[in-house]
Amino acid sequence: MLKPIKDTKTLKSYSQPPKAPFDEDQGLSGTISTFPSSPLDIPTATFERNLKRRQENHQALIQWIKKTLEPDIHYGHIHGNQQCPYAKAGMPQLCSDFSHFSMMTLYKPGAEMILSALGLFVYYPNLFQYKLACLHRQEITTIVLKCELKAQNGKIIGEGIGARQHTPGQLESQFKP
């Protein structure tokens, strides 16, 4: 005759773990957390070591950026004065009036190099909607894109949103994913 399931050895070996002592700090789930939920909850010496390590990593990244990225290829100034004679002639790079230029700006190739070095990738969650609108020949007057920077495990590290109004006849210069 068969034994009842509760009497089998396999199920008996997997019993409930003992409950945590009453006076120990418990997390939100009712269990003791192995890892602190806040960096301020870790021991002071560990926290100081982590801060120092992050400072050193930050300085190493800054030095790598200075050594690797090239001006006018990876970063530079953008000419912003459309009334400038050089801009009207299609040669804004010849303009020597510094008030016509933006502050130092990171260009797409520079951003891609930094993302690659950090092991991050870019994801545009709403880009598909714009592609569908273009395929169905819907009129697009404003473009608003959300950009997410993700780690290799898919965790979102940073995000941003950019928008642009449509200028008639210039859609190709505005929509470059």
Walk me through the structure.
The protein is α+β, with helices and mostly antiparallel strands and 177 residues long. The chain folds into two domains: 42-118, no CATH class; 120-177, no CATH class. The protein contains six helices and five strands. It has helices at 9-13, 44-68, 85-88, 108-118, 127-135, 171-174; strands at residues 75-76, 105-106, 121-123, 142-150, 156-165. The strands form two sheets. Strands 3-4-5 form a three-stranded antiparallel sheet, with no helix packed on it. Strands 1-2 form a two-stranded antiparallel ribbon. The longest helix is centred in the first third of the chain and has 25 residues, at 44-68. It is flat, with a radius of gyration of 28 Å. Residues 28-37 have a biased composition (Polar residues). Residues 1-40 are annotated as: Disordered. Residues 1-10 have a biased composition (Basic and acidic residues).
What would you call the shape?
flat
Low-confidence stretches: 11-15, 21-27, 171-177
**Percent helix range:** 25-40%
Number of strands: 5
Query: What does the main sheet amount to?
Result: 3 strands, antiparallel
Structural class by SSE content: alpha+beta
Number of helices: 6
The H-and-E topology, N to C, reads as HHEHEHEHEEH
Distance between the terminal alpha carbons, to the nearest Å?
70 Å
Strand order across the largest sheet: 3-4-5
Content of β-strand? 5-15%
- Kindly report the average pLDDT value: 80
